[in-house]
């Protein structure tokens, strides 16, 4: 625990160029560090397990929210087990994903995923929830259109209430994001990008995320809107490991206040 505490303080200082206030977190990024060290909620490992969480979602929201699993195993076979295009993910990590549209990309994915097997994601940055997730791979249908990936809606839910939606654009080419509030007003600073179009199913996305996050201080629920249909992507409990900057800084503080308030209500 002493070494983990030291690592968390040093990585936070290195990334944010400021000291970490762990005993009295004020910012969202500080609360993520606090969760890493002290939150041992036994529900979290199941939520970050990309295979196990699908049963949780199907039970809570209905099977229509769940992206089908086409294949599951430890190492990819010689030939694709389902028609291309498809997506390969690691069940036990975050950000381990390969988009396969051609046989050449399948061969590249086989090489790439071989290194994922022995990679224990939770040990890198003291993200406890990942440590007990079984290693493995799963394959899902490709949701994009040719080279264009679908817009990723990441809903930040504090105390069971969705407060913000982080909209991820052009993930395959010029990846960037814009933060909107639940009323679809822009929160992140101005940029060359126009405000993203409000998804037709926003109310359903919010309701689904809030149902999944009920009883938790904070969860980020990632979803898609495909042809007017809402689909669950994944649950994130340590967004950016709390090491990516939250812009503007006032948003980092505001999210921190929401997390503290959710914790106080639960402990009250």
Largest sheet: 5 strands, antiparallel
Number of strands: 9
Runs with pLDDT <50, length 5+?
Answer: none
Succession of helices and strands: HHHHEEEHHEEEEHEEH
Radius of gyration: 18 Å
Strand content: 15-25%
Span between N and C termini?
A: 27 Å
Strand order of the largest sheet: 7-6-5-8-9
Number of helices: 8
What does this structure look like?
- The protein has 268 residues and is α+β, with helices and mostly antiparallel strands.
- It has a domain at 68-142.
- 32% of the residues lie in helices and 21% in strands.
- The chain has a 5-stranded antiparallel β-sheet with strand order 7-6-5-8-9.
List the helices and strands and how they pair.
Elements: H1 2-16, H2 28-38, H3 44-48, H4 53-61, E1 71-73, E2 86-90, E3 97-100, H5 103-114, H6 121-124, E4 137-141, E5 152-158, E6 161-169, E7 176-181, H7 202-212, E8 218-226, E9 229-236, H8 249-267
Antiparallel strand pairs: 1-4, 2-3, 2-4, 5-6, 5-8, 6-7, 8-9
Helix pairs in contact: 2-8
